[in-house]
Amino acid sequence: MDLYQAHQFDLPFEVHGDPMAAGPLLFNSPHSGACYPTAFVAASRLDPASLRRSEDMCVDELFSPVTGQGLMLMRAHFPRAFLDVNREPFELDPSMFADDLPDYANIRSLRVSAGLGTIAKIVSDGAEIYQKPLQVAEVLARIDALYHPYHEKLGQLLRLLHRRYGFAVLVDCHSMPSLPLRDLHRRADIVIGDRFGTSCMAMISDVVEQSLTYAGYKVARNRPFAGGFITEHYGQPKQGLHAIQIEINRALYMDERTYQLHRGFTVLQDDMLRMTTALAAAVAGSAITGPMQGGRLAAE
Fold it and tell me: Domain of 182: which CATH number?
């Protein structure tokens, strides 16, 4: 029996927009997937609504208008609680498994320690996901079926844009709870992550920050989110490959208790589209090209 059979997705992820005519910006929403496999829900100690606490709900919809500007949007349909592509391929917690992990697994990363590895142990509020230990073979099959194809496609699209324009800009799109778990103070409206200036040209972060600040948002930079694996892995400015992460406070567009969108969604969507227009114009007028030699574009 195929170990992955119980978790098959008709469409694990998709790309909106025409790759053959797209501009140099690629938008990515890796955590907005909301297709929860029946077997996964049955194996969880949490109800479906609780599993959704880790989901970047409707972030793909927030950025969907960029395709009308001739840009591409890639989005996952599988949920982050099931598999997280914004991690190394094998960031795995040995305490979650009934058998031994392979030697190449990264069992000591900070993300694994926090319970949020490639296969998460908890949802974002700290509740444990699984009723009993997992089998390593099943999880490795999950990674083969979803993680690797996702990154192969993302790398392929970035290579295509780089060949066409001499550079490419990846905008990794996320959302965050309005209140940190251990903090009574509200977070900023939007957090820009560029790995402290290492994942993209400074001008890109500057344009995003200026546009959103002008729209009235409280914008922070790199704190508390500097960018995850995707931003770090694909952001190679010296090679003409730029990656920036955008984290959006969920209270701006939804009721975090009921998961219902409110009227702020349309306002935020319009503001993100204006930011995209400004960023596209800025990169079109700048020399941010770079050589491909030495660049790593596919997940290893």
Answer: 3.40.630.40
